[in-house]
Design brief:
Blueprint (H helix, E strand, L loop, with lengths): L32 H20 L3 E2 L5 E3 H8 L4 H6 L2 E4 L2 E5 L4 H10 L9 E10 L11 E10 L4 H18 L5 E6 L6 H12 L8 H9 L10 H9 L9 H16 L5 E2 L13 E6 L9 E7 L3 H4 L7 E7 H8 L9 E7 L5 H13 L4 E3 L6 H10 L2 E7 L1 H6 L1 E6 L5 E5 L15
Parallel strand pairs: 1-5, 7-8, 12-13, 12-14
Antiparallel strand pairs: 2-4, 3-4, 5-6, 6-11, 7-9, 9-10, 10-11, 14-15, 15-16
Helix pairs in contact: 1-5, 1-11, 5-9
This protein binds histidyl-adenosine monophosphate.
The site of histidyl-adenosine monophosphate (HAM) has 25 residues, from strand 6, strand 10, strand 11 and helix 11.
């Protein structure tokens, strides 16, 4: 840094020890206007699909009491152990939400929805926060769009949520979409499977990555989805949950697959999918796009979490959902940066005295639903017209002393040069600066 900037003239965004002060924190970024067209498209389509399937929007706080996530997501998960942004005020510890399922369940219990209409479907979208290692397609503030269907244990609800995510991702145009399904059993059959898995892995313990060596004792199921090539090779030879299900879980899995087949969803069963949050039981699913590149190619995931409501003190009513990563979907679509949207008009003042009329005319057009801009800096006529071009205005609306006297403006179609006079009172009418008029 010292070589770049003379010490007596540091740029204002460097502090005295050379730290960048005016930079977004690592793992966060600004979403720029030209990027947001793609974001708004993705979010708009998602909203549309969510509501077709009967989901209603629910907005929960950006932060919650930390113990909601500690208990809900699980103490021995990466998210809770290493990635939560926590802070305390007074006696309580809070956390920025690392995901939203626990918050939605908290709201369901808090509002006692089980006692009025038990089966509820909610969608949400917004930022989530995880202090993860910075990597391509991985952010510390990222965005999710998700749904949670709470109040049913029926396998057709699992299938319905999966088909929704699948249809949405296909509709958005995600290429090489991979949809994977698995089951991880329930509180009745999983403990025995876990023990079996541990026993089968112990002889190969030395070959595991250090992370998985720890997992062997603390969270053995997670061994199955380790991305390290050595661990992944071992995982393929280990016992599979699907072969060790209790009767209820076996029947549930068959029913989910039957419904997905009937709905003609293109998916495959991947026995190595176990998910990174502790609340799941039975169905789990993931959506990915290998074309995204890098190891972070999961576009979304979800599953059933029947145990979470009782765990948090709520009714035992069953729940299932998924969340999609908006950042990654936008990146997978590779949408080109958008040009600024065309503006209906740019109002140009020829002289100082016309500026007030220009302000009023712009206001009148805006209230009539037209988009327009005008100069606030006292620029010359030439510069105002140049600015109108730069902003992509469809028309210029010019007011000078002569026009002012007659209460008219000169309206010119920028592309063709076609020009006519329009009375001030008619500017915001269809015959004035309306989309088709000159
Ligand atoms: P998750 O798998 O942790 O599940 O996150 C879902 C999706 O969010 C991921 O597949 C990924 O696309 C995106 N995502 C996660 N972390 C990051 C990150 N650091 N940077 C960018 N994108 C990221 C959940 O959060 C569960 N709540 C899903 C769920 C809903 N299960 C049931 N209901």
């Amino acid at each position: 840094m010292q070589g770049l900037f003379p010490l007596n003239h540091p740029p204002p965004w460097l502090d005295c020890i050379g730290m960048a002060l005016l930079q977004a924190p690592v793992g966060t970024r600004d979403l720029l206007p030209e990027e947001l067209a793609a974001w708004r498209h993705v979010e708009g389509r998602s909203r549309d699909w969510f509501e077709r399937y009967g989901y209603q929007e629910l907005r929960t706080p950006l932060f919650e009491y930390a113990d909601l996530f500690q208990r809900g997501i699980g103490e021995v998960t990466d998210i809770v152990e290493k990635e939560m942004y926590t802070f305390s005020r007074g006696e309580r510890l809070y956390a920025l939400r690392p995901e939203q399922t626990a918050s939605i369940v908290r709201a369901y219990i808090e509002h006692d929805w089980a006692s009025t209409r038990r089966f509820r479907k909610f969608w949400y979208m917004g930022p989530q926060f995880r202090h993860e290692r910075k990597q391509r397609h991985r952010y510390r503030q990222f965005y999710q769009m998700g749904v949670e269907a709470i109040g049913s244990t029926s396998p057709t609800v699992d299938a319905e949520t999966m088909v929704l995510a699948w249809r949405l991702l296909r509709d958005l145009g995600v290429r090489d979409l991979v949809t994977e399904l698995n089951t991880i059993g329930c509180a009745a059959c999983r403990p025995a499977f876990r023990e079996r898995l541990r026993e089968a892995t112990i002889p190969r313990q030395a070959e595991l990555c250090p992370h998985c060596q720890r997992r062997l004792e603390r969270n053995v199921l997670r061994l199955l989805d380790c991305k390290e090539p050595g661990c992944a090779a071992i995982a393929r030879e280990l016992p599979r949950v699907v072969d060790h299900l209790c009767e209820g879980c076996g029947a549930h899995f068959d029913a989910v697959r039957g419904a997905l087949d009937a709905l003609a969803v293109e998916y495959r069963v991947n026995p190595l999918i176990v998910r990174g949050l502790d609340y799941y039981s039975r169905t789990v699913c993931e959506f990915s796009s290998p074309g995204l590149g890098g190891s972070q190619n999961a576009l979304g995931g979800g599953g059933r979490y029947d145990g979470l409501l009782p765990l948090l003190g709520g009714p035992d009513v069953g729940a299932v959902g998924f969340a999609l990563g908006t950042d990654r979907i936008v990146e997978a679509l590779g949408a080109p940066l958008a040009a600024p949207p065309a503006m209906d008009a740019y109002v140009v003042a020829v002289d100082e005295e016309s500026r007030r009329d220009c302000l009023l005319l712009a206001e009148r057009m805006r209230t009539a639903g037209l988009s327009c801009e005008l100069d606030h800096e006292g620029r010359s006529l030439q510069k105002q017209l140049r600015q109108a071009h730069r902003l992509g205005a469809l028309r210029s609306v010019v007011v000078g002393p002569e026009e002012r006297g007659r209460r008219v403006a000169r309206v010119k179609v920028m592309e063709t040069g076609e020009e006519r006079e329009v009375a001030f009172d008619d500017l915001a009418r269809p015959e004035g600066v309306a989309p088709r008029g000159p």
